[in-house]
Specification:
The chain has about 750 residues and is an alpha+beta fold. Helix content is about 30%, strand content about 15%. It is built from 21 helices and 22 strands. The strands form 6 sheets. The protein has a 7-stranded mixed β-sheet. Strands 10-20-21-11-22 form a 5-stranded antiparallel β-sheet. Helix 13 packs across helix 19. It is globular, with a radius of gyration of 29 Å. It starts with a helix and ends in a 24-residue tail after the last helix.
C-alpha cells in the first residue's frame, strides 16, 4: 500500500501548483535572491530558471516540487497585493493582444535656461526644437503571455505581452529592429524580439540564419531622415546560439587582439560559398554580413556577440549577462529611442549623426524626369576632407599634415588647438577647512548640452590673417587671452569683483592662466568678450560654410534620456528635494532599464570622441594617414567646439555662483564640480529660494545642462587623501562619488 501512496504523491508532485511567471520572479526578487542562487539550489542551469520566470518553459519533476515549495514559502513571507489594487492579469479566455496599451511617455521640452544654460548670447541660438514623441518603455518580458509551443510553426509568432505591440507602423519591420537568438532546453532555436515577441528559427547555419532574417523575420528599423537609409536588422547571438552555429563562445587572446576570428574559420567559408561578404573589420563582435546592393534593395544583417565583448560593461553594465528576453528589451528600448546599435556606443553615436544628416539626397527631376544623387545641405557630405587641407593647429600629433615637423617636436599652445574638459583642483582655504563636507554636483549630459544650438563648420577651413573676431563664425583663432583678469569680470551687464585666485581660468583645461597667444575655438574666444575684455586675433582658420549640424542629434539623445529617466521615476518637473530623492533610488526601480540611461550617456561622449579618432594599430606610423581620416565625420574641429562650449557653460555657472554666494569650487573634473559645505546635500550650498534657483547658476534637474548630486565626502577625508598622496592639488572630484581613490574617472 505504501508503494501506491508513494506513486500518488509523485503524481501530485508532478502537477504541483505554481504561481504565474511574473509572480515567480516577484517572489524571488522580494527575498533578494538572484537567478543564479535559485539555479544552484535546485541544481539546474541559470537559463532554466530564467525560462520558468519568463513563461518560456515549465519545471518538471523532481525540480518542480522543490521549486513549488520554494515559491510557497516565499509567498508566505511576501504575500501579493490585494486583488483590488494589483494589476489584473489578462483574461485567460481573451487573446493577449486585446489587453490595454499604456499611454506613451512624453518628454517635456526643456526651457531655454534648462537645455544648455549657454545658449550663446546670440538670438539664433535661443531657439528650441520640440522633441519628437517617445514611446513608453515596454514592461519587463517576465509578464509575457505566450501561446503553446506545440502550436507553432517555423517563423510563427508567440503572443506579445499586454500593452507592448511588437512592431511599429512599417509592416516591413513589424517584429521590431532586432532579435536575441538563443537555444532553449529542448534544443529549439528561438529569436526573442522586442515587446516580448518570440519567433521560431528554422536556420541550421549562419548563412541560412542571415537569409531567414532578410526573408522572413521582418526585422529592421525605418530611416531617421528623409534621404537616409533604413537600419539593417540586428541579431544578438547568445553563447548557446554560438555553439549551435559552430562559432566559438569566447575569443582567444590572439583573436581578441585582432578583433575577429581567422579568415579560414569554417563559418566564414560557409558564408563565402553562399556569396555573402564581410566588411573590412571581418567576423568580430559586431560583424556585418552583406551582399552588394542591387538598386534600392539592401541585403545586410548585423551580428552582435556579447560573449566576444560586443557590449562593453563600461557602457552596457551587465546587459550581456541578461536572459534573452530581457536583453531584447534593453536593446530594443535603446534602438527605438536612439537607433539600432551599429557597434559600440561610440560608433553608434557617430552613425546617428550621419543617419540624421545623410550625405546625399535625390535631386529634382531633370528634363528627362531622372533624379540624381546630390549633396544634402546641412550634412558633412560624402567625401572626407583631404588630410593635407587640414589646419595644422586642429589635427592631433602624427597627422600627415605635420609630417615635416622634427620627429620629437612638441607643439605648444601657439601651434596646437587644445580644447579639452576641465581637470583642475586647488588647496582648500582655511575657511573651507572649517566646514564639514565636500559635495559634488554633476552636469547631466554636459557635452550634449554643449552641442545644442552650436554653430559648427560643415566644410573646409579658410586661413585668415589678422581677422576681426566674429562670435558667430566657427573656427580656430590664434589670440592672446592672458590679459583677462578673473578678479574683475562682467556678469551680465555688470562688473563684479571676485577672488580670481580661487577660480580656474576658463581658457585652459588645467585652469592655468594663459601666458601668451594660443589657439582657441570660437566659444572660448567669445566668452573672453562676454567677460568684458577685448580680443585681437593674430590669425584664424574659419569655416564660412556652417550650420547647427548637431541639433537633431542632441534632440534625439535628449528625448531618449528624458523618456527613459521618466520611466524610472525621475520626471523633469520634480521639485529639487523630490528630484534628489528620486535620483537616489532610480536604478532600483528597474535595473535593466537603468542600463539604457548609461548607454545613452556613453553614446554622447563616445560619438563626440569619434570625431577625432586616433590610429588604432594596423601598423600605423607617424606622418601616415590612418583609416578614420577617410570618413567625412572625422572632424576634430567640431569636437573641439563642443568641448569648448561645454567648459565655458560650466565656468559661466561657477562665476555666477561665486558672484552671488561668495563660494568657489575646490575641484572640477570634466562635468563634476566640488564645493565645501556644512551639509551633505547640494541644497546646503545652492542658493534656492522657494524652489527657485539662482538665474544663470546651477539648477537641480534631469534635463541636459542641469545638475544632480554626484557624491559627498567629509573635508577630513579630502585632507587625508591629499596628505596620503602628498599632493595638495589632487583632484578630489575624481573620487567624490564613493570616496574610493583610484585612477578611474567617476564623471558622467
Amino acid at each position: 500500500m505504501s508503494e501506491l501512496f508513494d506513486a500518488v504523491d509523485a503524481l501530485l508532485a508532478s502537477r504541483a501548483a505554481l504561481p504565474p511567471p511574473a509572480e515567480r520572479k516577484r517572489l524571488r526578487a522580494a527575498h533578494g535572491l538572484t537567478i543564479d542562487e535559485v539555479a544552484t539550489a535546485l541544481k539546474v542551469r541559470r537559463a532554466t530558471v530564467s525560462g520558468w520566470e519568463s513563461g518560456k518553459t515549465e519545471p518538471r519533476p523532481p525540480e518542480r516540487d522543490a521549486y513549488a515549495r520554494l515559491l510557497d514559502k516565499l509567498a508566505e513571507l511576501y504575500p501579493a497585493a490585494p486583488a483590488d489594487t494589483a494589476t489584473p492579469a489578462p483574461d485567460a479566455a481573451m487573446p493577449a493582444t486585446f489587453t490595454a496599451t499604456p499611454a506613451p511617455v512624453e518628454a517635456r521640452t526643456p526651457s531655454t535656461e534648462e537645455s544648455s544654460e549657454a545658449v550663446s548670447m546670440t538670438a539664433t541660438e535661443n531657439t528650441q526644437t520640440s522633441p519628437a514623441p517617445v514611446a513608453a518603455a515596454p514592461p519587463r518580458p517576465a509578464r509575457t503571455t505566450r501561446t503553446s509551443s506545440t502550436s507553432r510553426r517555423p517563423g510563427a509568432k508567440k503572443a506579445a505581452p499586454a500593452g507592448t505591440p511588437a512592431g511599429g507602423a512599417d509592416p516591413r519591420f513589424e517584429n521590431g529592429p532586432l532579435a536575441v537568438v538563443d537555444v532553449d532546453d529542448e534544443g529549439k532555436v528561438l529569436a526573442y524580439c522586442t515587446g516580448g515577441l518570440v519567433l521560431d528559427v528554422p536556420a541550421k547555419s549562419i548563412p541560412a540564419l542571415v537569409d531567414w532574417t532578410l526573408r522572413e523575420a521582418k526585422l529592421g528599423q525605418p530611416k531617421l531622415a528623409g534621404p537616409g537609409k533604413d537600419a539593417d536588422p540586428l541579431l544578438v547571438l547568445t553563447e548557446a546560439a554560438l555553439e549551435r552555429y559552430g562559432l566559438p563562445v569566447t575569443l582567444t587572446e590572439e583573436e581578441k587582439h585582432a578583433g575577429r576570428i581567422p579568415e579560414g574559420h569554417k563559418v566564414i567559408k560557409q558564408l563565402t560559398r553562399a556569396d555573402w561578404k564581410l566588411t573590412k573589420r571581418g567576423f568580430g563582435p559586431w560583424a556585418r554580413i552583406y551582399r552588394p546592393a542591387t538598386g534600392s534593395e539592401r541585403a545586410c544583417v548585423q551580428l552582435c556577440i556579447p560573449s566576444w565583448n560586443a557590449l562593453d560593461t563600461r557602457h552596457w553594465g551587465e546587459a550581456g549577462q541578461l536572459p534573452p528576453a530581457e536583453l531584447a528589451r534593453v536593446l530594443g528600448v535603446y534602438a527605438s529611442r536612439v537607433m539600432t546599435p551599429r557597434g559600440s556606443t561610440a560608433v553608434t553615436g557617430l552613425e546617428l549623426m550621419t543617419a540624421l544628416h545623410p550625405a546625399t539626397r535625390a535631386s529634382e527631376p531633370d528634363a528627362d524626369g531622372k533624379r540624381r544623387s546630390e549633396h544634402n545641405p546641412g550634412s558633412l557630405g560624402k567625401d572626407a576632407i583631404d588630410p593635407m587641407n587640414w589646419p595644422p593647429c586642429e589635427v592631433p600629433d602624427g597627422h600627415p599634415v605635420l609630417k615635416d615637423l622634427p620627429r620629437f617636436h612638441v607643439r605648444g599652445p601657439a601651434e596646437k588647438l587644445f580644447e579639452e574638459a576641465y581637470d583642475w583642483a586647488r588647496p582648500m582655504t582655511d575657511a573651507e577647512c572649517t566646514l564639514r563636507h565636500l559635495v559634488g554636483i554633476d552636469v547631466n549630459m554636459a557635452f550634449a548640452a554643449g552641442a545644442n544650438g552650436l554653430n559648427v563648420g560643415l566644410g573646409e577651413a579658410t586661413h585668415v590673417k589678422a581677422p576681426a573676431f566674429d562670435p558667430k563664425l566657427p573656427g580656430s583663432w590664434l589670440v592672446d587671452l592672458s590679459h583677462v583678469d578673473l578678479s574683475r569680470v562682467k556678469v551680465g551687464k555688470e562688473w563684479v569683483e571676485l577672488d580670481g585666485s580661487l577660480l580656474p581660468s576658463p581658457f585652459t583645461p588645467k585652469g592655468e592662466r594663459p601666458e601668451g597667444p594660443a589657439w582657441y575655438a570660437t566659444p572660448t574666444v567669445a566668452y573672453a568678450v562676454e567677460l568684458g575684455y577685448e580680443v585681437r586675433p593674430i590669425e584664424a582658420w574659419v569655416r564660412y560654410e556652417n550650420g547647427r549640424y548637431l541639433d537633431g542629434w542632441y534632440n534625439r539623445l535628449r528625448d531618449a534620456y528624458l523618456a527613459t529617466m521618466a520611466d524610472l521615476g525621475v520626471d523633469a518637473d520634480l521639485s529639487p528635494a523630490d528630484f534628489l530623492a528620486a535620483m537616489d533610488v532610480y536604478k532600483d526601480r528597474d535595473p535593466d532599464l537603468a542600463i539604457v540611461t548609461t548607454a545613452i550617456k556613453a553614446t554622447v561622449k563616445g560619438g563626440l570622441g569619434k570625431l577625432r579618432e586616433r590610429p588604432r594599430g594596423e601598423g600605423w606610423r607617424p606622418g601616415q594617414p590612418w583609416r578614420a581620416l577617410s570618413r567625412p565625420t572625422w572632424r576634430p574641429d567640431i569636437r573641439a567646439a563642443v568641448i569648448s562650449r561645454t567648459r565655458i557653460n560650466l565656468h559661466r555657472k561657477i562665476v555666477k555662483h561665486a558672484a552671488f554666494t561668495g563660494q568657489y569650487p575646490v575641484a572640477i573634473l570634466s562635468d563634476c564640480v566640488v564645493y565645501a559645505a556644512d551639509g551633505t546635500s547640494p541644497l546646503d550650498f545652492l542658493p534656492y529660494r522657494e524652489d527657485k534657483p539662482l538665474p544663470g547658476g546651477f539648477k537641480l534637474g534631469i534635463n541636459p545642462g542641469l545638475v544632480k548630486h554626484e557624491g559627498t565626502q567629509t573635508v577630513l577625508w579630502g585632507e587625508e587623501v591629499r596628505e596620503r598622496f602628498n599632493a595638495s592639488e589632487l583632484n578630489l572630484a575624481r573620487y567624490i562619488k564613493d570616496g574610493t581613490v583610484t585612477d578611474v574617472d567617476n564623471g558622467e
